[in-house]
Specification:
Elements lengths: L8 E2 L3 H22 L4 E7 L3 H16 L3 E7 L5 H12 L6 E4 L9 H6 L12 H9 L7 H12 L8 E5 L6 H10 L3 E5 L6 H5 L4 E4 L17 E4 L12 H5 L4 E2 L6 H23 L1
Parallel strand pairs: 1-9, 2-3, 2-4, 5-6, 5-7, 7-8, 8-9
Length: about 290
């Protein structure tokens, strides 16, 4: 892809996310009208991290707009793995709860993987369990990790050719970098996984038709790393509304670039709500 005026076109997630939430709201109302079941998302927050609390509030506000019920569970920062697992198991067994979100990161004393695995796969609407990861890897039905799933939807909406493209993913988190690569691979892209310790990283990035930056370091990816006309997805969010990509430099080289904020972030929440309605419909059909 090439840029006509040497300035990347922004890949904005805000409007697409609003459409997704509106469609989820229609489906949620239909389910409630026909069955009396209102889709419900339970958000679990451990501790009092201000950023995490803000994220949870934002997700609950969006849920309300989509006609999705929300349950908030706030546990003290001193919570143990066992206590958190017990709470997530209780929610997994609650028939009135259709989706469960564990806000991460959790305090250091908690085994985060053990906590994620306490979420029933049928309610893993954030796509964080090993079951969901396996479904993404094998191309089977299941919930997608919300940020990678949102990225794929954004790329598809902007008609980015994925089949045969070389995608370089910078980051290897089990809920962002790794599943992003798996979903791109399932779309017939050729995927190179890299991270902050990869040797010769700029040269590898320069080969990419599509770059997904998910490394958690502000302004980490520089414009000179990019192939002219590359599609750049900045999945990072750092203090001061700064992404993982140096936006000004990248905009002069890339053809498409997600802004921070307003790019990937809204897509993450929209997919979470869409998958909560999916879960409610599936659970209601089974019951």
């Amino acid at each position: 892809m090439t840029s006509d005026n040497n300035t990347a076109r922004p890949m904005i997630g805000t409007d697409l996310a609003a459409d997704m939430v509106a469609q989820a709201a229609v489906r949620a109302k239909k389910l409630q009208d026909e069955t009396g079941v209102q889709p419900c998302l339970a958000a679990v927050l451990v501790g009092d991290d201000p950023a995490s609390a803000t994220y949870v509030r934002m997700k609950q506000n969006r849920s309300k707009k989509a006609g999705i019920g929300s349950v908030s569970v706030v546990l003290p920062a001193s919570t143990t793995t066992e206590e958190l697992v017990a709470e997530l198991t209780r929610l997994s067994n609650d028939p009135t709860v259709h989706g469960i979100l564990l806000q991460h990161p959790v305090p250091a004393q908690i085994d985060e993987r053990a906590a994620f695995e306490a979420i029933a796969p049928a309610k893993d609407v954030d796509g964080v369990t090993m079951h969901s990861f396996a479904a993404m890897a094998f191309g089977e039905p299941g919930f997608r990790s919300c940020t990678p799933g949102g990225i794929l939807r954004l790329l598809q909406t902007y008609d980015v050719p994925l089949s045969g493209a070389h995608a370089v993913v910078i980051g290897r988190s089990p809920i962002l970098g790794k599943p992003a690569g798996m979903l791109l691979l399932a779309s017939n892209a050729t995927v190179t996984y890299t991270h902050s310790r990869t040797k010769g990283l700029p040269a590898l990035v320069r080969q990419a038709d599509i770059v997904v930056a998910a490394v958690g370091k502000p302004n980490f990816v520089r414009g000179e790393w990019l192939k002219p006309g590359a599609v750049v997805v900045d999945a990072g969010y750092n203090e001061g509304n700064v992404g993982d990509v140096h936006a000004e430099e990248a905009a002069a080289v890339a053809s498409l670039l997600t802004p921070v904020p307003g790019g990937v972030g809204p897509m993450t929440i929209a997919l979470l709500l869409e998958q909560t309605v999916d879960a409610a419909e599936a659970q209601n059909a089974r019951s």
